[in-house]
Design goal:
Layout lengths: L2 H25 L4 H24 L4 H28 L10 H20 L5 E7 L4 E6 L1 H27 L2 H31 L1 E3 H25 L10 H5 L3 H21 L6 H20 L1 H14 L7 H12 L5 H16 L1 E10 L4 E7 L14 H13 L4 E2 L6 H9 L11 E7 L2 E11 L7 H60 L7 H30 L6 E3 L1 H12 L6 E5 L6 E3 L1 H18 L5 E9 L2 E8 L6 H6 L16 H11 L3 E7 L3 E9 L6 H4 L8
Parallel strand pairs: 10-12
Antiparallel strand pairs: 1-2, 2-3, 4-5, 4-8, 6-7, 7-8, 9-11, 12-13, 13-15, 14-15
Helix pairs in contact: 1-2, 1-7, 2-3, 3-4, 3-5, 4-5, 5-6, 6-7, 6-9, 6-10, 9-10, 12-13, 13-16, 16-17, 18-19, 19-21
Length: 718
């Protein structure tokens, strides 16, 4: 290995790392994972440049100085990779991983301060070794401590990446595979060289060369992943079982043991010069085997080989049903159940794109509830129209077999194709599996992008049909459970509201009597001023609460007629008034008239505006937008306030008496949802703590003249 090769590899690795970091920052400016990846690559590039300058130094003292600066740069590396491993492919929102961010900051700060304080004692000397045929840099105890910290940080990064990869399914795994293995190759190679530095209290020039080669290979794999997915925001939720069965530590320990044995063998036979190259080959072999084993195509080919030549059934039904029971046991919400079955079907049938659409019976539409397609947000966007539901109901009335939506000329199948696009050109045909129980449509499952585009067999269709039956029964059971729980909750709510109304009326009567008696003390200015202010505020507040609670107890009665949504929004803004602290920006589009109860719907918009204003800081902005979509109109209200957690939105936002406000009752959003659903509409919420909230209300178009008569009196079943 000549000097020119050493310099060339160091420079090339620095350029690769720096170029990839700049590419990530240029294309993905708002991604926390992208920032962490770019920082880690830039620190590694600086380290490579330090070693390049070390090699070109005119004296031994300057060589030692540059090696020390390289160790300082190395101290910055583990923290960035800890953050990348924790955030990558888990939604990209740092707020969810504050613990890892604090750990990374403290860890990096300690290593950096330690490296700077003991910088002059990191490397003791640089000497030419005839045994290894190259330079040898003897390390002091501070350098060994830094390498130990690097080992710990690399292990934490590897464990996080492993958890993410093992929890991924479908196209999400396809997109993140090379990023995970590229980072694993880099951290694994550095683990080996750091372990050698700790063991021998020295760093060989061969290991510095090996670090540069490992960085180049890792950049290639990360570049492939970046080309595939652009570090797309993917939400992967590792389960507790995955976290408890981490194999990263086992693999690292096995790798270090193997290399320790090889080091002993090479030293015994005088071949120590070839050890770094051998270590690189072993590491590449481990990574290569991992990539091959993680390939969906390889696993598919292996299963078919066993099935064809050893007469084994294509599916092991005992394993399928055991896995189905394990994944769905204890789930009591329809969205969570849909996520579980989407992942199961993707694994069993090797279909990378699986979406589950659930039948929303209040709006007679299909809502996307789960998907294995990376970057697809569930629960948001436009639902499939009622025409698709009616057509599917007609189909399942004749048969419940899975059917090919790519071969069907029906217009409603075109809607399914557009809503479930294929990711791969050779992914095969897409199939729709109806979920039906007792003649009622519970939803559909769309399968696409099967590995290698292999067609479905009779055995596949039979298993799909049986799984669909069980899934439909499970969905119906969850719906019944939700109805029972809702009935019990509403029974308690009605009793509570009755008591509240009674108490509030008594309080109102008492306050009214106080107002009447004010004439006796009216001549006292202090009493008059204080009492009037207090009584006026209390009476207005209590009257509002009584009106709300009474409306909830009696149900909703809508008086529908044609109205313009923009006019209702403007009336709500005028009712809100201008407090001078929060700016309101209107972005109103031309929309058709729809059937609305103007007063009720105005109260919905006003309540959403009040919530947005109370959540916003002075000087911020509330944006109100209206528009038309395929099946109706919508109004969207966005604020940049405190936001809400995902848990609160899922479990508490639309339930009575659950609120984040200090003085709120928690009935505003509950009543708003009831009014919207009475209009056969839908309300969706997107929020993030500290970054604001977006609320959309969708109202369908209706050209049926009898609709007004049918909906003139809509009583909420709750």
């Amino acid at each position: 290995m000549g000097v020119d090769w050493f310099e060339l590899v160091q420079l090339f690795s620095a350029v690769c790392a720096g170029g990839l970091a700049c590419g990530v920052l240029t294309r993905i400016r708002r991604s926390a994972a992208g920032w962490a990846l770019a920082a880690g690559l830039l620190f590694l590039a600086l380290e490579r440049l330090c070693h390049l300058f070390c090699w070109r130094a005119p004296s031994v003292e300057e060589m030692v100085e540059w090696v020390n600066w390289g160790l300082v740069c190395m101290a910055l590396v583990p923290g960035a990779w800890i953050v990348f491993g924790a955030i990558y492919a888990r939604g990209g929102r740092p707020a969810k991983f504050r613990g890892w961010l604090w750990l990374s900051g403290i860890f990096t700060g300690v290593l950096l301060v330690f490296a700077l304080v003991f910088r002059n004692g990191l490397t003791l000397e640089a000497a030419w070794s005839t045994e290894i045929g190259n330079w040898l840099f003897r390390l002091g105890w501070p350098a060994r401590v830094l390498h130990a910290g690097f080992v710990v940080g690399s292990l934490l990064g590897l464990m996080n990446l492993e958890w993410t990869f093992r929890a991924s399914v479908g196209s999400a795994r396809w997109k993140i595979k090379y990023a995970v293995f590229g980072a694993g190759l880099l951290l694994g190679e550095r683990l080996y060289t750091s372990a050698q530095a700790i063991l021998y209290s020295a760093t060989r020039a061969q290991f510095i060369f090996l670090d540069a080669v490992g960085l180049v290979l890792a950049c290639v794999m990360l570049g492939v992943s970046f080309y595939r997915s652009k570090l797309a925001s993917i939400d992967i939720y590792p389960s507790t079982a995955v976290l408890q069965r981490s194999v990263s530590v086992l693999l690292v320990a096995g790798y270090l043991v193997v290399m320790g044995v090889l080091a002993w063998v090479f030293n015994s036979f005088g071949g120590a010069r070839a050890l770094p190259i051998t270590g690189l080959m072993v590491l590449l072999a481990i990574v290569g085997v991992g990539i091959v084993l993680a390939s969906d195509r390889v696993r598919h080919a292996a299963r078919r080989l066993v099935s064809q030549h050893f007469k084994r059934p294509l599916h092991d039904y005992r394993d399928v049903w055991a896995e189905f029971t394990k994944r769905t046991a204890g789930i009591v919400d329809r969205t969570g159940y849909a996520r579980a079955v989407a992942g199961l079907i993707s694994d069993v049938f090797e279909a990378l794109s699986v979406t589950v659409w659930l039948h929303e019976k209040t709006t007679s539409s299909l809502v996307l509830s789960a998907s294995t397609v990376a970057g697809v947000e569930t629960g948001q966007g436009e639902p499939l129209p009622s025409s698709v539901v009616q057509s599917l109901t007609g189909v399942v009335g004749r048969t419940v077999e899975p059917f090919d939506i790519d071969d069907s000329p029906e217009p409603w199948c075109e809607v399914l194709r557009q809503s479930n696009p294929g990711l791969f050109k050779k992914g095969g045909h897409r199939y729709c599996v109806p979920l039906v129980t007792r003649g009622e449509l519970e939803g559909v499952i769309i399968l696409g992008d099967r590995v290698m585009g292999v067609g479905y067999t009779v055995e596949d269709f039979e298993l799909l049909k049986q799984l669909a039956n069980h899934i439909a029964v499970g969905l119906q059971s969850i719906s019944l459970y939700e109805r029972v729980a809702q009935a019990r909750e509403m029974e308690a709510f009605q009793v509570m509201s009755a008591f509240l109304v009674h108490d509030l009326k008594n309080t109102l009567s008492s306050l009214t009597l106080t107002v009447r008696n004010m004439s006796k003390h009216f001549d006292n200015p202090a009493f008059r001023e204080d009492a009037l202010r207090s009584l006026e505020h209390s009476a207005a507040h209590i009257s509002e609460l009584v009106a709300r609670l009474t409306a909830l107890r009696q149900g909703l009665r809508l008086q529908l007629s044609l109205h313009n949504l923009n006019k209702i929004v403007m009336d709500a803004v005028r009712s809100l008034g201008d407090d001078g602290r929060i700016a309101i920006s209107l972005r109103l589009s031309e929309v058709p008239e729809v059937m609305l109860d103007a007063k009720r719907f105005e109260s919905v918009v006003l309540n959403l505006l009040l919530n947005a204003r109370e959540a916003s800081l002075p000087g911020s902005e509330i944006i109100i937008e209206t528009g038309k979509h395929e099946n109706g109109v919508y109004v969207a209200i966005r604020d940049h306030g405190c936001g809400m957690s995902e848990e609160f939105i899922a479990n508490s936002l639309f339930k009575p008496f659950r609120t984040t406000k200090k003085n709120g009752l928690g009935i505003g959003m509950y009543q708003a949802k009831a009014i919207v659903e009475a209009h056969r509409g839908r309300i969706t919420v997107q929020s993030e703590l500290g970054r604001g909230t977006l609320v959309r209300v969708w109202i369908p178009l209706c050209n049926d003249r009898n609709y007004e008569k049918q909906q003139a009196s809509v009583v909420d079943s709750r």
